[in-house]
Amino acid sequence: MSVSVAVAGASGYAGGELLRILAAHPEFDVRTVTAFSNAGQPLVATQPHLRSLAHLTLVETTAEQLRGHDVVFLALPHGQSGAIAAELDDDTLVVDCGADHRLTDERAWAAFYGGEHHGAWTYGLPELLHAAPAPGAADEWRDVDDIQPRGTQRTELVGTKRIAVPGCNVTAVTLGIQPGVHAGLVEADDLVAVLSVGPSGAGKKLATTYLASEIMGSASAYAVGGSHRHVPEIQQNLRVAGAADVRISFTPVLVPMSRGILATTTARLAPGVTARDVRLAWEQAYADEPFVHLLPEGEFPRTADTVGANTALVGIAVDEAAGRVVAVSALDNLAKGTAGAAIQSANIALGFPETLGLTVDGVAP
Question: Which of 310, 192, 205 is nearest to 252 (CA)?
Fold first, then answer.
């Protein structure tokens, strides 16, 4: 029996990507799509690439329209998910692609978002590493070759009814640097991340900054100086991975590609750590991950290789002169960064194979 699905915010970029993946999912049946200003229009009027869903019409985004489904995906602007989610049944799996339920710290929410804090849900990054329970484990990590895997966030997702999907930039930085944090190989109070990001991460809205004539042939930094809303979420993740204190200088740069994030994250190495230690930690962290792939030594990812895929590619190097590790991660902000992560997490919550309906293959050229 198929799982009935509703997608709120179906006329936007995240909603469209959710629907593109859901359309090919063997267990999910999309029955309702909602929007605000576009309500009443055929879905294909706003998402003309979704021909297999041409029979659907956008209806108003209300709790009444969303009730009665097995799964509800919320692809709404920040601050709009909390109130609607509160009106949905407890036995419905609700997956929020916005920020409303990501942060556990109410003070961080107030500082970076403002408005009502609706509480944290189960975090939807299955590959997030959980800190080792035993003290001194970081030293043991460096001293042995046969490293045993530690826990990940996926165990928390099993059976949950409320999922908060991570921010796309957060996913890129977390997956890039967390193995070093988790293993105690890097000093998490000295992190620097510079990201090249496509404008689709800002959503489908009319703004001069995102006009083609403004971004083509240009690159521009934004949210400089620690003001980006994803900063506290990155800190939250790396504390889960084992960091006692996280300080990160985070600078996103808007570049002329519709999709994609290329995150270059560097961290100061702990005393005595070698390049071999670093390689071993990243290899062990991602050895069995279906969607996070560590590239061979000396290779680094391209965003083009992740377009349309639920794949994150990671390349690492040690800058011996600077005493730092350099992690370069690439992903599609709409796929692995948002919709793919949502469906991957929903699969786990419902007991389906984690990879069901998802692909590691990108689109080229």
Answer: 192
Cα distances from 121 to residues 13, 67, 158, in angstroms, run 23, 19, 13
d(CA 176, CA 146): 22
**What's at 300, amino acid-wise?**
F
Between 326 and 210, the more confident residue is: 326
For residues 243-247, give the mean pLDDT. 95
Query: Which of these, 144, 97, 145, lies nearest to 123 by C-alpha position?
Result: 97
- CA distances (Å), origin 126, targets 90, 199, 282: 22, 26, 16
Number of Cβ within 10 Å of residue 164's Cβ equals 29
Residue located via tokens 């640097």: 177
Tokens for 239, please give them: 């504390």
Which residues are known catalytic residues?
Answer: 168
- Residue 152 is given by DSSP the state B
User: Tokens standing for 3?
Assistant: 């799982």
* Integer Cα distance of 163 and 113 in angstroms: 19
Residue 233 phi, psi dihedral angles, 5° rounding: -70, -40
Tens digit of each residue's pLDDT (9 = 90 or more) over 87-141 = 999 999 999 999 999 999 999 999 999 988 999 999 999 999 999 654 443 444 3
